[in-house]
Amino acid sequence: MDAGCVRSSKGNLSPDIAVSGRNDHLAALSGVIDRANPAFGVAPRRQLNGTISCSGGFLAACALPVTAQESCVKNGSERFALVTGGGGFIGSHLCDRLIADGVRVVCVDSFRTGRRSNLAHLEGNPAFRLVEHDVIDELPAELKRLRFTRIYHLACPASPPHYQEDPEHTMMTNVVGTRNMLRLAESVGARLLLTSTSEVYGDPEVHPQNEDYRGWVNCTGPRACYDEGKRAAETLAFDFRRAGRADVRIARLFNTYGPRMHEDDGRVVSNVVCQALAGDDITIYGDGSQTRSFCYVEDIVDGLLQLMESEKADGVPVNLGNPDEMTVKALVDLVVEMTGTASRVVLRPLPQDDPRRRKPDIGRARDLLGWEPTIDVRDGLARTIAWFSSAEAPGWGTAAATGTDGALIQAAE
Ligand SMILES: NC(=O)c1ccc[n+]([C@@H]2O[C@H](COP(=O)([O-])OP(=O)(O)OC[C@H]3O[C@@H](n4cnc5c(N)ncnc54)[C@H](O)[C@@H]3O)[C@@H](O)[C@H]2O)c1
């Protein structure tokens, strides 16, 4: 943090900000929670809207009146990002990359589906702060004052069992949460990137799916809270853009996998890997001929960073995913081979509204960003299996051994 900014902030803090005398805790802001310190991994959800403590002047230095903020920008500290959903699978990798790239990051997460352990290694990093907050709720005033230049809006449960657990909350996260973030982008002049999804194409009638395809979505089905929620989120983002209220980028992510996936969230790769490692039955729903295209998380994070900074991608959604299509059966065979498991493969009926085919047309990402995946599925699976086999993967053995909701094993995300 730029020391000059810290100093210049002190006299300008708002009345609800108390500044402590300690150098490592320059300010305590009320109304927000920062769990960046010892509370990592322990804070229960009910403690939302407590207090925020800012070590190293990180937030305090940014909660400045405009003139002081301008001096921060002049001093080169303008790379300041908000990552919503930063405690989740993709978001935590994104936080890592941003920080490695020299960006200061505030992560906002309710930990509805994310995990504190995903961010534990960032504890104490002066470039990182964690704020526990639900994006549906009005943003704490202190957050609204921070001069973010980039907002990566990822907050939303991505796996079917998670987003179907509380469909109303999922829909509101996508609609109200996205509006809150767009309003923040509008008020601070930040560019906002929304992580939308291939689910906006529903059970597609065209293959592969390019961004002009308008989708085949069931608005009354159990997946609609997510699919239609994301469609509405895109609508809001484009409305803000059309009205000149916010600069937005839209990423439509296809199946992503890698370390820090939830072991029990019904996504194909994590389910199959965990079942194989535990020696449990590996469940395939349908006959396994349905296809998916799996993109390793590192490639997706590269794509998100490039899309955010792209001027050419203004005003258009961009697919990010791996066009190497494979059947679920082929994935299972590969995992069985790579883990050497003795697990049996069992077949079960397909769940409702599950897409039969999924493959991104990434022509636009190639043209506009020069982006395409670089990590092939064998390499990505090796890294993922290694992670699930390591002590870093929290407690998957229990979830896999007790069995997951197999009806979701081929779930699209
Ligand atoms: N993983 C995929 O294959 C995939 C595919 C398409 C789109 N996406 C999108 O990418 C984003 C990240 O997905 P992921 O796989 O990391 O999912 P995830 O569930 O691991 O992470 C989502 C994060 O958002 C947080 N969150 C959820 N609702 C929130 C709320 N109301 N307020 C604050 N935080 C909230 C969760 O606690 C979690 O940390 C999501 O927007 C998802 O829709 C993911």
Automatic annotation (TrEMBL):
<dbReference type="GO" id="GO:0033320">
    <property type="term" value="P:UDP-D-xylose biosynthetic process"/>
</dbReference>
<dbReference type="InterPro" id="IPR036291">
    <property type="entry name" value="NAD(P)-bd_dom_sf"/>
</dbReference>
<dbReference type="InterPro" id="IPR044516">
    <property type="entry name" value="UXS-like"/>
</dbReference>
<comment type="similarity">
    <text>Belongs to the NAD(P)-dependent epimerase/dehydratase family. UDP-glucuronic acid decarboxylase subfamily.</text>
</comment>
<dbReference type="InterPro" id="IPR016040">
    <property type="entry name" value="NAD(P)-bd_dom"/>
</dbReference>
<dbReference type="Pfam" id="PF16363">
    <property type="entry name" value="GDP_Man_Dehyd"/>
</dbReference>
<dbReference type="GO" id="GO:0070403">
    <property type="term" value="F:NAD+ binding"/>
</dbReference>
<keyword id="KW-0812">Transmembrane</keyword>
<keyword id="KW-0735">Signal-anchor</keyword>
<keyword id="KW-0472">Membrane</keyword>
<keyword id="KW-0456">Lyase</keyword>
<dbReference type="GO" id="GO:0048040">
    <property type="term" value="F:UDP-glucuronate decarboxylase activity"/>
</dbReference>
<keyword id="KW-0210">Decarboxylase</keyword>
<keyword id="KW-1133">Transmembrane helix</keyword>
<keyword id="KW-0325">Glycoprotein</keyword>
<protein>
    <recommendedName>
        <fullName>UDP-glucuronate decarboxylase</fullName>
        <ecNumber>4.1.1.35</ecNumber>
    </recommendedName>
</protein>
<keyword id="KW-0520">NAD</keyword>
<comment type="pathway">
    <text>Nucleotide-sugar biosynthesis; UDP-alpha-D-xylose biosynthesis; UDP-alpha-D-xylose from UDP-alpha-D-glucuronate: step 1/1.</text>
</comment>
<feature type="domain" description="NAD(P)-binding">
    <location>
        <begin position="82"/>
        <end position="383"/>
    </location>
</feature>
<dbReference type="GO" id="GO:0042732">
    <property type="term" value="P:D-xylose metabolic process"/>
</dbReference>
<dbReference type="GO" id="GO:0005737">
    <property type="term" value="C:cytoplasm"/>
</dbReference>
<keyword id="KW-0333">Golgi apparatus</keyword>
